[in-house]
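Discrete fold record:
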Amino acid sequence: MASKALTEVLQRAEAWPREAQDELAEIAREMETALRGGLYRASPEELAGIDRGLKAAEEGRFASDADVAAVFAKHRRP
């Protein structure tokens, strides 16, 4: 039996663009795999992002503490 919240969002999702529906289905499959104790398999896009991050780390490209603080200060609500 589905929860009321799940039923409602799935009904609304029927009107979403196909790409958004596919993304929701993929997220649900990932959750299902995790609930069964399965292994998560990163997508090619995620693996490429990991590779970019590792390369940036090897090159020493990091935001300074001051840079991070400035971004938080800029976007923090008063």
